[in-house]
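Appendix C reproduces, verbatim, an entry submitted by the partner laboratory led by Prof. M.T., so that reviewers can inspect both the input and the predicted structure.
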Amino acid sequence: MILRTFFHLCLPLLAVILFISPTARISAASTKPSSPDQTVLAYTVTLTDLLRIDIYQEEDLRTMSRVDAKGNINLPLVGEVRVVGLTVSAAQKAVENAYRDGRYLRNPQVTINVESYASREVSIQGQVRSPGRYPLPIETNMSVLELVTKAGGFTDTAKGTAVNITRISSDGKKQVFTVDVDSMLKGKDKASISDNSLVIQPGDIVYVPQRIF
């Protein structure tokens, strides 16, 4: 009799646990905390950035190095390591590989912090209402459309279908992209435009030509 009474008292509680528990498990599994370093790690290392390089349990190898004109940093023992154009996360791996491949460290754990950011500016000239130089955000991208908007938009005589972006890479190579910004303003997609040409990089020169009537 006592066992039967105990069973009847526990049955509702057991049903509640079985009903709630799966939901709680799914909620816990699907909730992942965002990394506070996610934005920083997405930053692309630029010429003249000043970097602090730390290696776990290797105090003697801690150093500060500025990215030189060739895109390299100079590190104890291994010398030059190319990091320009890499995200902070990728630069950390490049330094780890340098110490591992040189057989100086078996399993290096590298942390890189940007101590001083390089000047990040772009120039826009031609048929925009406010031509000039504009600063780029540090840890987010700016598109050519956003730059044109910051420059006050096109003039009435601008040829927005053929905006030129001139880019000089760290190895001295020159690239010129032609972007149909007018179609972007109207919400039209242009399949021939590469993603690389849409994102403005430090040192880019943007020129908006004039329409020929």
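The chain has six helices and twelve strands. Additional entries are available on request from the coordinating office.
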